[in-house]
Design a protein that fits this description.
Helix content: 10-25%
Number of strands: 19
Strand content: 15-25%
Distance between the termini: 49 Å
Structural class: alpha+beta
Largest sheet: 5 strands, mixed, barrel
Order of helices and strands: EEHEEEEHEEHHEEEEEHEEEEHEEHHHH
Oligomer: single chain
Number of domains: 2
Strand order of the largest sheet: 3-5-6-8-7
Length: about 350
């Protein structure tokens, strides 16, 4: 194993015979014409040595990848040539949903756009975004056995503070079309990252699983778990309050497509599945064995302070009607790679919802 000084500092470079994929940092430090396989997240379309488009893509001939899905510094990006045979699947103009996805590309490590690059790719793939063995313990299981295996996998996480959540949400919920903004969960509005706080029209930290449903507060644990914390308009967050999820009610101001009544809240169609999978994650992650309450889903909308949230039958409908999309997968990747180092299994494997809840 060699140590090479590159743009990112001292980087370990595996020998040419190593089977492991290089990081982007390692690839940038090894611009010597060797053939290598590199894994990274798609972060834009290079158009010049120090310029990358993150929206309004103009061509399918190049992509930039980085070690973090939220990377904005071009010096930490690898510029990848997309030759004609790969453009239909990996060109950003044709496939804008690739932004934020993890891919693996093999080719020649050499300058492209007068920048650290990879040219003449021999393979490009965008498969499952989790490490290959992450869910090994869950393979072939179903029902209670699958539930127990998934809990054991995702309980291994890095806990963050409630103050850190502000910074994390600016990355996890970044607007793909505007790196200065976040997308609000229920409202769908793109809003400046800096306009967070407690005043009207600010955005704040929405607990999709209400804190009061189990009384877990904001100490590191369920109260700070990014897999269910999202940015939301202060007023809309207040309207949702600690209500369970169901259909029907009156329209919600500043939240197109949302409805609410005395005991339930219905989000817009585009995020109904997201909401369902966030709650399902919480029910599997927090089983009562690590000092936190045993969170469970049920078919009630009158759960009060019990560690329960519903309505399960409706959440199952929402999961089926609104499957995981590129935005949801990217968010899962950022939480895994940068913050908590655990994943929401129901984004990676939607079929496991049926295997556990039917």
């Amino acid at each position: 194993m060699a140590l090479v000084t590159g743009a990112a500092g001292m980087v370990m470079i595996p020998p040419a015979s190593a089977a492991a994929d290089l990081t982007v940092a390692a690839a940038l430090a090894a611009q010597d014409g060797r053939s290598a396989s590199v894994a990274g997240y798609v972060v834009g379309q290079p158009v010049a040595t120090d310029s990358v488009l993150r929206s309004g893509f103009t061509a399918d001939t190049a992509i930039a990848i980085a070690d973090q899905a939220t990377e904005t510094g071009t010096t930490r990006m690898l510029y990848v040539q997309v030759t004609s045979g790969f453009r239909a699947s990996f060109g950003l103009r044709t496939n804008p949903g690739l932004l934020g996805r993890r891919i693996v590309v093999a080719g020649q490590l050499t300058a492209y756009f007068a920048h650290g690059g990879l040219k003449e790719p021999t393979s490009m793939s965008a498969g499952a975004t989790e490490p290959g063995d992450y869910y090994a313990a869950a393979a072939g299981r179903t029902g209670p056995a699958l539930r127990a295996a998934l809990h054991g996998i995702i309980a291994n996480q890095t806990r963050i503070s409630y103050a850190q959540v502000w910074t994390a949400l600016q990355q996890t919920d970044q607007d793909p079309a505007n790196a200065s903004n976040v997308i609000l969960l229920y409202s769908g509005r793109s809003q400046s990252k800096s306009s967070n706080g407690g005043n009207a029209n600010d955005w704040n930290r929405e607990h999709v699983w209400p804190q009061s449903h189990g009384d877990f507060g904001t100490a590191a644990g369920p109260g700070t778990d990014l897999h269910h914390l999202r940015p939301e308009d202060v007023t809309v967050n207040s309207t949702r309050g600690n209500k369970d999820f169901d259909t029907g009610g009156s329209t919600v101001a500043e939240c197109p497509g949302c409805r609410t009544d005395a005991d339930s809240f219905e989000p817009r169609d585009a995020v109904k599945g997201d909401v369902a999978r966030m709650l399902m994650y919480m029910a599997i992650r927090y089983e009562g064995g690590d000092g936190w309450p045993d969170l469970e889903l049920n078919d009630s909308v009158t759960n009060g302070s019990a560690p329960r949230t519903g309505r399960l039958s409706v959440l199952l409908q929402w999961h089926r009607a609104d499957p995981p999309d590129a935005v949801e997968r990217r968010r899962n990747d950022v939480i895994f790679s940068t913050w908590q180092h655990n994943r929401n299994p129901f984004i990676d494997h939607p079929e496991w919802v049926v295997a556990i809840w039917g």
